[in-house]
Write the structure tokens for this entry.
Amino acid sequence: MNDTANTQATVPADGTGARIDRREAIRRVAVMLGGVAFVGGSRLVAAVENAVAPASGSIGEFTVADIAFLDEIAETILPETKTPGAKAAATGAFMARMVTDCYWPVEQKIFRQGMQRVDAATRKAHGVAFMQATPAQRLAVLKELDRESKRVMDAQDRKTRKDTVSPRPSDANSAAAGQEVSDVADELPIVGVHAEGEEPRRAAHYFRMMKELAMLGYFTSEIGCTVAQRYAETPGRYDPCIPYKAGDPAWASHA
């Protein structure tokens, strides 16, 4: 059983008052994202572990309209299907709170500018604002931003590791595109403080931040743990081998 300091009390709909271990949920989200460190580092992890239900209204510099915008971004990433989506879990407010409390000022600026860029990309692609776009239009825009984010973050990672070996471009256009991505990675500002001789850390692509926070907010919420995943309160009986059928949702961790 985990120490209660590493868990956050969330009360399921049945009122049992069971505690759900968010540290395991955070670990699982990290695996989904490729095992990389979260933007915000240990401050973000600690804040998620101790998060409470987000309050309504503005949060920091995020207005109610901003939070509604983040809700729709999160809902596009994690839409309602047979289970409630990210908006039902108030993921937008979670994202706003984590950015406000855990991101360095330069990262906060990148994140907020990123919201404007999402809207601009939607207007360019579909001629409407993100909030007026259809779910299919929103998804198309975010898929392209996700691909862009991966290219930029991969380029940044190669530079950080001083990895000079990369696939040979097939033509001049590919080489130009690769250089453009590398230039974008170089333009991301240095974040935080670092010791002498330590490789400085650059900020992440704004959509990387959004995707991380959307997944963290959803899968560490009551809905994410008790509805999107299966949840069993403890203490309980010992089941050394549990039957599994392909397609069944994963079990939520618990204290």
Summary: Residues 1-20, 174-185 have pLDDT under 50 and may be disordered. DSSP finds nine helices and two strands in the chain. Residues 91 and 217 are 5 Å apart (CA to CA). Strands lie at 8-9, 19-20.
